[in-house]
Amino acid sequence: MLKSGRVDSGEDELIRRIADGDRAAFQSMYRIYFPRLARFLDRMVRNTPLIEEIVNDTMLVVWQKAHTFDRSCKVSTWVFGIAYRQGLKAVNRVDEPVESDFESQPGDASQEPEQAALALRLRQDVGRALDALPLEQRVVVSLTYYHDMAYQEIAEAMNCPVNTVKTRMFHARQRLRGLLSAHMEEMS
């Protein structure tokens, strides 16, 4: 058991091996985290080449700093915290309009056309509503609902108090409720 009361995982072993310079362990970690980090960062930057650069920068930090991982949190919390900070640096460096390719994503082909159209519309509306949130709120929502992180883990990743995470989520939910109310009225 670790300080946080959780059991050691395979990712803990990978980090230990990475700290020892094991390139195969790093490659495994990279394959595990690339898609997860790409989905997370897409909510922050919406720029595919930049997302890949941020993921690579994040994983470089993991490679260089694996020996500093103190096991006081989950490996995923540590890695997502690095990605969050790298993402903030990139967002501050690049001042471009945020674009979404949400409209190009197809609906589930197994659904009826009308249901598929409604589902696509809902995804588009949710995507636009999330994009309208301030960055910190968008990150909290993304980590909570798309990456199943608890508030404590998010606070550790974002290097802020848990109450700040809760406040950001409260305001994000309020804003999303307002932004999505038009869509919900159409569905009724």
Automatic annotation (TrEMBL):
Keywords: Sigma factor, Transcription, Transcription regulation. Residues 29-90 form the RNA polymerase sigma-70 region domain. It comes from the Bacteria. GO terms for biological process: DNA-templated transcription initiation. InterPro entries: RNA_pol_sigma-70-like, RNA_pol_sigma-70_dom, RNA_pol_sigma70_r2, RNA_pol_sigma70_r4_t2, RNA_pol_sigma_r2, RNA_pol_sigma_r3/r4-like, WH-like_DNA-bd_sf. It holds the Pfam family Sigma70_r4_2. Residues 124-176 form the RNA polymerase sigma factor 70 region 4 type domain. One of its GO terms (molecular function) is DNA binding. The keyword Transcription regulation applies. NCBIfam families: sigma70-ECF (TIGR02937). Belongs to the sigma-70 factor family. ECF subfamily. This is RNA polymerase sigma-70 factor, ECF subfamily.
